[in-house]
Amino acid sequence: MTDRRTELAARLAALQVRIEAACAEVDRDPGEVTTVVVTKFFPTSDVLHLLDLGVQDIGENRDQEASIKLAGVRAARPDATVRLHFVGQLQTNKAGSVAGYADVVHAVDRPKLVGALDRAAGRAGRRLVALVQVSLDPPGAQGRAGVEPSGAAELADLVAAAEHLDLAGVMGVAPLGGDPDRAFAELARAARGIRQQHPAASWMSAGMSADLEAAIRHGATHLRVGTAILGSRQSLR
Ligand SMILES: *Cc1c(COP(=O)(O)O)cnc(C)c1O
Hints:
This protein has an 8-stranded parallel beta sheet. By secondary structure, the chain is an alpha/beta fold. It is built from 9 helices and 8 strands. The protein binds pyridoxal-5'-phosphate. The site of pyridoxal-5'-phosphate (PLP) has 14 residues, from β8 and α9.
């Protein structure tokens, strides 16, 4: 094994220990928790190591980087299972491109994007799994995206009605410097509200390197983990 692969294997193992410990505290089965490894800023070679180490869910947040990297990965590992999760903010004019290669779009935050993704998926002859991003920031805060919790159910209805989108659940990012337990409790509340109308919308995409234990406490089914596996992104810029 290369040094890099050994390093990634060790970090994946350490992450698994964290996940199992966090699940044990709240009596959850670690098997219900999927890790999406966020590889943004890291090279295709790292994605190949991850696939060879058993990772199947890869997250990216920029269209061009994601599409180029995924093409390289598919060329190098034509038989590997790889699901591409688009975890970033998505501009409507990029929806056409992303719908052509992503399997899951985590940050559906407005009606216009629902329409754009649905049409693009239809044109591409594909279905997309879609998550409603719920804003977990204090009301009125500047900053991160997401629909207000009070509007989440209505947006979920739109996603569910879209012909080429499959509503899977919710996604959230805890505010920087805020209390992640409070944020993820709010996300869990939004998820329950949506499930009243859409019982199959069981996913909760929450938790990053720094706050995944809190996310697991509140029912996260999909963690989005970058730094804890790949290392600091700063050093690459
Ligand atoms: C980059 C990113 C992550 C991963 O964050 P880490 O702190 O590196 O684990 C998770 N979610 C989103 C939306 C991201 O953009």
